[in-house]
Amino acid sequence: MSKFTNATITKEANIYYDGSVTSRSVELEDGSQISLGVMLPGEYTFNTNKAEIMEILSGNLEVKLPDEEWKTLSTPESFNVAANSSFDVRVKTVTDYCCRYID
Amino acid sequence: MSKFTNATITKEANIYYDGSVTSRSVELEDGSQISLGVMLPGEYTFNTNKAEIMEILSGNLEVKLPDEEWKTLSTPESFNVAANSSFDVRVKTVTDYCCRYID
């Protein structure tokens, strides 16, 4: 188990897709923003404002990035998403993730 | 939205009931422990080691504490659970909670 110290965490959850995707917003010591979340099995599309690094901690899923084919991730694995774009996921098993927002 | 500052958060999620209940473990600045979690609709039983204060941030549910009848909570509302006991919940809508562990 790894930990983030000296972090600021928002108490209330972010709830998407009727609870199938939920996360907590965290500001790290260096001021960068992350969200720690869980996705239940299902298909989801996420839009990005800032660029993101999606770090998959556990779980089986496929991801489709813009202009790319679907690919199966071998967890733990990360993928990058450009700002102002979107990505699709097909979540096969409960997936734990850490999303880093890149300024 | 309220925030916990100078906190230590464990990166990996706690996952229960096949993902229907998930949480993140947080140590607060004063050394006390909490978990910030989400429960999807369903019926769950939780065992306690330490005494707990369960603060329901949002969502509709009923709770049954030991030797008590089922009662509907009017969120936001908190309830206390003794150490080394358990409680049952019937979650009606996605429920966001903060569980404080009492030494």
UniProtKB/TrEMBL annotation, chains A, B:
Record flagged with keyword Transferase: yes
Substrates-to-products reaction catalysed: uridine + phosphate = alpha-D-ribose 1-phosphate + uracil; adenosine + phosphate = alpha-D-ribose 1-phosphate + adenine; xanthosine + phosphate = alpha-D-ribose 1-phosphate + xanthine; inosine + phosphate = alpha-D-ribose 1-phosphate + hypoxanthine
GO molecular function: guanosine phosphorylase activity; purine-nucleoside phosphorylase activity; thymidine phosphorylase activity; uridine phosphorylase activity
GO cellular component, one term: cytosol
Similarity remark: Belongs to the nucleoside phosphorylase PpnP family.
Function: Catalyzes the phosphorolysis of diverse nucleosides, yielding D-ribose 1-phosphate and the respective free bases. Can use uridine, adenosine, guanosine, cytidine, thymidine, inosine and xanthosine as substrates. Also catalyzes the reverse reactions.
Protein name, entry field: Pyrimidine/purine nucleoside phosphorylase
